[in-house]
Amino acid sequence: MKKFCSKCYNTFDINIMTNIDFKNNFYVCPTCLDKIKKSTPREYTEDEIRENLLKHFWFLIEYWEELPNKTTSEKMSGLLHSVLATLDGASADIPKNR
Ligand SMILES: [Zn+2]
After folding, report:
1. Residues 19, 6: Cα–Cα separation, whole Å
2. How far is the CA of 20 from the centre of ligand 1 (A)?
């Protein structure tokens, strides 16, 4: 089963036991999971924030598009909520303030 990685947005074969990001309920590929474990925290640059924001929006489209048993209206409402939550700083992928 293919899934989108919530960090790098590449597709990868899912392995539920090792690749789920429990905190955000999104999936993380093995490469990003490894990076997360090894990384030391630092601030994002402006370019990185801009790029991450755009990638995150594309990811949100895929995420809501793939959800089963939802009407188009529910998916679009969900997408809008996710976008607004991201802009409000609720997403773990986008830093609130620099
Ligand atoms: Zn990844």
Report:
1. 11
2. 11
